[in-house]
Structure formats: structure tokens, C-alpha cells
Amino acid sequence: MKKFSLLTIMLFLSVSIFAIAPPSIVQAAFKKMYPKASGVAWSQDSGYYCANFVMNGFTKSVWFNAQAQWEMTQTDLVSLDQLSPTVYNSFVAGPYASWVVDDVTMVEFPKWQAIIVIKVGQDNVDIKYQLFYTPSGMMLRKRNVTYMHDILGPSTFL
């Protein structure tokens, strides 16, 4: 019985040591913005606190700086079906329409317009791009993410 208790305590301590707990001001700012968020998991990303959660059926990630200022929110739209007709029509009329869509993400900012990011690749070819669109359907840029971990954190947009 003692071994079980000691093992349980050691496991609890090891888990709590590695858990990311943002400052209370960051947690309060998050709860104010997303009071109905569920399944929240915190991490750190390049000096930002990032909350990953589910809301209204969508997986979201939100970044706050250490002063609890909102930097950006990323919503995983999963497929082209969730796009506005303007962005959808721009994509299907563009040069990557025949490529395989791997992911569709909307990124929102406090001071800029939202950006839609469509990740595409080709069958049997090891190449991946992220295509960045405005809500009006204009393609801003593309980014080769073939050999990158393609998280869309705040540093992507600096």
C-alpha cells in the first residue's frame, strides 16, 4: 500500500512540474473572451501563452502575451466547406485549385483583418504550401511549409 501511495505522489509531482499554467491575468483574459470554452489545454509558444480548446464545434487556439493582451486566435475550419463564397471562389480559380487541401484555418487579430490560410499539397510529391487570403479573396502570399512545423503562431505574421 505504501508503494502505491508513493508512486501516486511521485506521478502527481512529475505531472504538475511539466504543466503549463499561465499567470492569473492571462487566465482571466481568456475566460472573459471565451467563457464557454471547453477542454482547455495551455502551452507556451515563443514567449506567448497559448490556450487550445473547443468551442461551437471548432478547435481553436488563442495566444496572449505575458501582459494578458490578446495577440491572435486561430480557428481550424478543417475544409473548404466553411469558407465564405468569396474566398472559396478565389481559391478554386487560382493556381492551387487542383492541389489537395490539407487544412483550412482562419486567423483573427485584434488590430488587423482576419486571414484565411489554406494548406495544400500534391499527391505523391513531398511539397506543402500555406496560402494566405484576405476575407475579400485576395491572396496575400504563399509560404513553403514542406520541411517546417507549420504552426501559425504570432511570429508567422510579424
TrEMBL record:
Keywords: Signal. Pfam families: PepSY_like. Residues 49-130 form the Putative beta-lactamase-inhibitor-like PepSY-like domain. Residues 1-28 form the signal peptide. Gene3D superfamilies: 3.10.450.360. InterPro entries: PepSY-like. This is Putative beta-lactamase-inhibitor-like, PepSY-like. It comes from Bacteroides faecichinchillae.
